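Need a sequence for this fold. Nothing fancy.
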């Protein structure tokens, strides 16, 4: 896998956000197979296998619920890749770097959070926000608090705290330093997770924070630094499609063993890149367009889910999913207009 172009990165963001958006609706439906994202639960694998061996009309929903969250490692990979491409050719002081990237995230977070609070307040199942958790969310430190899965709402916004941690790790530890340090940090984070109970609270805490995201983030850094040394792989679109299918199959196989599960982000990233390179031009443009909306779509889709998940709960699952997709796209466009009118931070 040689270096990525700017348009390929945008299309990858489009695929990743589509997977995340669909996953975050599907896995909220109680009877659907649940994912192994923060914990490794054998019962979820058993249910997945049962659905694959005895498929029904909801099989696509089960697959999106179980696998869709792997759009997050693709975003982390692209973040690591982009940071090297943007910052490592010139000096950048730590405090301005962290301030700029915090404000860049806050510019998205504040719009989505405010709109979500309004919607959450007037719809059934209102969440009780504590003032200190709101401050922790806006400061992007909430992931560090105990039981983050029960205090981050909407739960999708855990990603902001994760990204801020990775910005800190990158600038203070990895920026313009040896790539061996990146490899070493990936190894340390892997060993920390490996030492945990697969279904325990310690692993949950680690995976809500940078330890769980270091593998794909570090892979992006390494590709940006050394990708030009990788021989260019010249394949026709169907060749890339075969690579994508093979590596997605590998990711599926790795789901069924705890140690292997920790490495799934790597084949998912390779499969996603190969898929983008296999797309016909018309579909590539759709993925690229979604990628251009990805930031707004990330903060907007929890609002659409809160409004429309009730349709799926009434067993009209595909009806609800279609309405959710349409509303998410329209709402994302509107949110993007709001975000674009907020002054962008300067480095």
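Here you go.
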């Amino acid at each position: 896998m040689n270096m990525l172009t700017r348009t390929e990165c945008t299309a990858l963001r489009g695929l990743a956000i589509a997977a995340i958006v669909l996953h975050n609706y599907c896995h909220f439906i109680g009877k659907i197979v649940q994912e192994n994202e923060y914990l490794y639960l054998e019962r979820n694998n058993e249910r997945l296998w049962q659905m694959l061996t005895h498929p029904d009309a909801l099989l696509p929903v089960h697959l999106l619920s179980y696998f869709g969250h792997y759009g997050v490692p693709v975003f982390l990979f692209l973040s690591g890749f982009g940071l090297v491409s943007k910052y490592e050719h010139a000096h950048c002081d730590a405090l301005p770097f962290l301030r700029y990237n915090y404000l860049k995230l806050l510019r998205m977070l504040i719009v989505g959070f405010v709109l979500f609070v309004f919607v959450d307040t007037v719809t059934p199942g209102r969440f009780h926000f504590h003032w200190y958790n709101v401050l922790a969310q806006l400061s992007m430190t909430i992931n560090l608090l105990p039981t983050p899965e029960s205090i981050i709402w909407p739960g999708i916004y855990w990603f902001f705290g994760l990204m801020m941690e990775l910005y800190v790790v990158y600038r203070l530890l990895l920026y313009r330093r040896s790539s061996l340090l990146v490899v070493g940090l990936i190894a340390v984070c892997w060993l920390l997770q490996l030492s945990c109970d697969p279904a325990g609270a310690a692993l949950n805490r680690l995976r809500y924070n940078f330890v769980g995201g270091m593998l794909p983030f570090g892979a992006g850094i390494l590709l940006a630094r050394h990708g030009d040394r990788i021989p260019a792989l010249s394949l026709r679109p169907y060749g890339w499609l075969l690579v994508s299918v093979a590596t997605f199959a590998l990711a599926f196989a790795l789901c069924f063993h705890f140690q292997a599960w920790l490495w799934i982000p790597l084949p998912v990233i390779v499969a996603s890149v190969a898929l983008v390179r296999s797309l016909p031009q018309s579909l590539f443009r759709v993925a690229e367009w979604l990628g251009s909306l990805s930031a707004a779509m990330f903060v907007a889709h929890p609002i659409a889910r809160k409004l429309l998940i009730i349709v799926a709960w009434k067993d009209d699952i595909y009806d609800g999913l279609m309405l959710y997709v349409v509303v998410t796209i329209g709402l994302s466009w509107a949110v993007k207009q709001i975000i674009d009118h907020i002054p962008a931070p300067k480095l």
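For context: The chain has a mean pLDDT of 96.
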